[in-house]
Design goal:
Elements (H helix, E strand, L loop, with lengths): L1 H17 L3 E11 L5 E10 L4 E8 L1 E8 L2 E6 L2 E6 L4 H15 L2 H7 L2 E8 L2 E8 L10 E7 L5 E7 L4 E7 L1
Antiparallel strand pairs: 1-2, 1-11, 2-3, 3-4, 4-5, 5-6, 7-8, 8-9, 9-10, 10-11
Helix pairs in contact: 2-3
Length: 173
């Protein structure tokens, strides 16, 4: 009976992490590994726990990244676009990776990116390192590093490393 209760509790905690909602500030550091050049950005993140994510940047003012169901819209560093993720596989992968990381479904993010995972826990945080093995799918990531607060499953830090050597680190308040 105790074993059953533990299994049910673990399942509920797991499901709770999938329902994470965010309405908080964030900062982002974009680093080009080849040149070492970095740029720092900040803004506000709103996420409904499902398929609606809005990142409005205050620095640089006017930049944004939006996931509205299958639609992905952005105005980032002078590049503006609007795409239907269901029609562009590269955008589908990037969209699902980001949403899965926010909801705590890192196993699916690893599977989608043809990657392996390594999980460590230390001082109240769980760090998940997702590393691509072999061929990286188009639009996939070479590595993803996630840091979740154990007590509530909230994502606090997200590092996305692209195959081209661009690394984006997000600190979520």
């Amino acid at each position: 009976m105790k074993k059953l209760i533990l299994i049910v509790c673990a399942a509920l905690v797991s499901l709770a992490s999938f329902a994470q909602k965010y309405d908080t500030d964030f900062s982002q550091i974009r680093r080009l590994k080849v040149s070492g050049r970095t740029s720092t950005m900040k803004g506000h993140l709103t996420f409904d726990g499902k398929e609606n994510l809005v990142m409005n940047y205050s620095d640089p003012d006017g930049d944004y990244f939006i996931v509205d169901g299958n639609m992905v819209k952005f105005n980032l560093l002078g590049k503006k676009a609007e795409m239907d993720a269901s029609k562009v596989s590269m955008v589908t992968l990037q969209r699902s990776t980001l949403l899965n990381c926010l909801t705590g479904n890192w196993e699916q993010a690893a599977k989608d990116n043809n990657a392996t995972t390594e999980v460590t826990e230390k001082t109240g945080f769980r760090t998940v390192k997702i590393t691509a093995g072999g061929v990286i799918p188009r639009g996939g990531y070479k590595a993803v590093i996630l840091t979740y607060r154990i007590k509530d499953g909230r994502l606090k830090r997200l590092v996305l490393e692209e195959p081209a050597g661009i690394e984006n680190t997000y600190e979520i308040q």
